[in-house]
Amino acid sequence: MAEPLRIALAGLGTVGAGVIRLVEANAALIARRAGRPIQIVAISARDRSKRRSVDITPYTWEDDMVILGERPDVDVVVELVGGSDGSALACARTTIEAGKALVTANKAMIAHHGLELASKAEVAKVPLKFEAAVAGGIPVIKGLREGAAANEFERVYGILNGTCNYILSTMEDTGRDFADVLAEAQAKGYAEADPAFDIEGTDAAHKLSILAAIAFGTAVDFRSVETTGITRILAADIAQARTLGYVIRLIGMSETDTNGDGVERLFQRVQPHLVPFDHPLAHVDGATNAVVAEGNFSGRLLFQGAGAGDGPTASAVVADLIDIARGEAGPAFSVPVEELVKMEAAHTGHRRSRSYVRFLVADRPGVLAEITAAMRDAGVSIESLIQTGRADSGGEVLVSLVTHEGPESAVSEALRLLEGSASLTQPPLVMHLLGS
Amino acid sequence: MAEPLRIALAGLGTVGAGVIRLVEANAALIARRAGRPIQIVAISARDRSKRRSVDITPYTWEDDMVILGERPDVDVVVELVGGSDGSALACARTTIEAGKALVTANKAMIAHHGLELASKAEVAKVPLKFEAAVAGGIPVIKGLREGAAANEFERVYGILNGTCNYILSTMEDTGRDFADVLAEAQAKGYAEADPAFDIEGTDAAHKLSILAAIAFGTAVDFRSVETTGITRILAADIAQARTLGYVIRLIGMSETDTNGDGVERLFQRVQPHLVPFDHPLAHVDGATNAVVAEGNFSGRLLFQGAGAGDGPTASAVVADLIDIARGEAGPAFSVPVEELVKMEAAHTGHRRSRSYVRFLVADRPGVLAEITAAMRDAGVSIESLIQTGRADSGGEVLVSLVTHEGPESAVSEALRLLEGSASLTQPPLVMHLLGS
């Protein structure tokens, strides 16, 4: 059998421990499939003395993770530290500059610095791989970059954050409100102590920007992802959506858009959507992730699985290692960095969507007339409208409506007309409806 | 840009025409992603003068498809003729022996001769690829062979035949019977004039045997797939299943099984199953295919999409070509042929399953007692039983029951006890329940 592929691990949290467990448990099978063994030679983490779920004594300890790639006995560094900058980025840069391959699960780093790292990897002629950075154990980077590589993509979208999906589907199952379910998720370890990255949509936006770059051949543009989280969704929204035939899911959506003027622009949005019952994403529950890629020849492809967790993430990391062991290479974002198009962000006002708009209003005469007049004046056509009292809200009333398909700018205009209205007890919530 | 990858097409049916359309329509994008253009240089089919949906005049015509691979201007032959033997196999052999890569969508050929062809390809050091042979446009071969390569697979199963799934989901939606829906599917072109390969499960068995080989590292063993088609399913079965919380889907199921005696054996079965509403496969409707792979680290992965059609199949064919253009190689079945284990077929009697058993019986006293006594005598524990009259059957009565989990041999024994009973108007139908 050929020489082993020698790897170093930077970061020994749950995913790092998962990679050690996987490489040990499935060693023989990995060697058979990769054509050679994968061997962990060195490890590094912030705190050497921390209690860990795996025995790290067989591996050489290195205090400074940044220099792992400079060890002559290391072929690949696996960066599992996390964080867009800091020691993760330093480790990634040093590794590639030392002419070693880099595998990472770090979506924030790839969303912010993926282009720089991919350029460096091209110069150094080493692989840069990050399957685990998007949708955990689901091989969706490979699916887009290779499996569906023959297609022009029409849309790529999906459920990219397991914490949000767990919270939304639990709210749906139990009728409980957001804050309550979040607290439980934190207690169970399904949500971080500081959940902002997840529940405000940032994590999904990181992943979406990576998928979009691969799918559309564009430069990663995390900053232009229009991002709305799930923090304002009420149990009542979920109940209303269900009445209308929808579930609510946090969807990351990307497509290119010629915007009427023929100039191709990149549309990227993370937002809670109403997903019709008959759409495959409506059945994605709990911490599961799923990505849909619509290709001009493949039609709709769906990739679904566990979006996080040590086992699934380790599965994706080691898949990258097996690819490297087999000699698979090629540009990280499918095409060389210099061929990635720097595409302007799409304008969204002209987009034709169906929208769900929910108001919390004071329970007094004339409120409905005020809302419907604003909609009429802005040219928004209302398909359905429901007004319900809120048992728990001391006289507050919930008004939710669904519009016919029309320009999103019209809905924005209607809400502008209602700005400052004394009837509204908080700003309205807008969610779009996902087309079938 | 590097030299083009020059391909020859053998077979110009709907898929062949699809490949031509795709290579022409997405040429620039393919060249960018593959690092070099993919160029069709020669074509061949049975009848040169046949009217086709694409213009074939730009390509050199070769009367004899078997010698396409011997042309010095061809790097890869794409075999789209179909059929396990005959000119498809002759073309495949000659191509590989001439030292050229082979891409094929031919599941029957790979199921029957895949090992021989893969051995030849290893000797000749050329790629053999067949993504399009399983589940149409879904990159599931890649998903197992690469994306989930770090995992030991616990089970691999799925909906592998679009015609059957179309028929079953149409029966479900309309309440109509099998023969009626089949006739309509044939009229619409969703089912072949001779539908036997599809509806008797052979096509799904071809695909399952290929997936199992890759997943479990075993020699392809199509002949030992236990295969039951969908021809005996009644509208009444679908209605009963629904009452119990299930839909009926033709599932190809594979796993390894140590059978109590520690010897690892390969279990492969194509059979209609009752799939619980909360399983992702229960929502796979129409001609869609879906494959579930359960890995020991990845957990459950689902790959879903169009299982047939010229566009999706061409998408898979060209994905293989892009891999070849990029220099991706490696064993066709993930590991070299000599490392594939020739695993004995699993015994099934000891398998613990929940079974749905449906009887058509004469409407007279004592029949239920006869059935339940046989179940009792064979040690089968009945969880639920429904008896319903059949409006259309002249006094025939339908009795369907679901067993508790128990050895499949017990159900077989109960049916053996009932063999020859004058009460049964036709042999009972057994379907297993898919676990969640």
Automatic annotation (TrEMBL), chains A, B:
Where does this protein come from, organism-wise? Answer: Novosphingobium aquae
Domain ACT, by residue range, is: 356-432
Q: What is its EC number?
A: 1.1.1.3
Top EC class of this enzyme: oxidoreductase
Tell me where on the tree of life, at the top rank, the source sits: Bacteria
The UniProt keyword set, sorted, is: Amino-acid biosynthesis, Methionine biosynthesis, NADP, Oxidoreductase, Threonine biosynthesis
One Pfam family name from the record? ACT
Question: Which pathway does it serve?
Answer: Amino-acid biosynthesis; L-methionine biosynthesis via de novo pathway; L-homoserine from L-aspartate: step 3/3; Amino-acid biosynthesis; L-threonine biosynthesis; L-threonine from L-aspartate: step 3/5
One function term, GO molecular function aspect: homoserine dehydrogenase activity
Q: What family is this?
A: Belongs to the homoserine dehydrogenase family.
Does the keyword field hold DNA-binding? no
Q: Which NCBIfam families match?
A: PRK06349.1
Does the record carry NADP as a key word?
yes
Protein name per the record: Homoserine dehydrogenase
Q: Which InterPro entries match?
A: ACT-like_dom_sf, ACT_dom, Asp/hSer_DH_NAD-bd, HDH, HDH_cat, HDH_CS, NAD(P)-bd_dom_sf
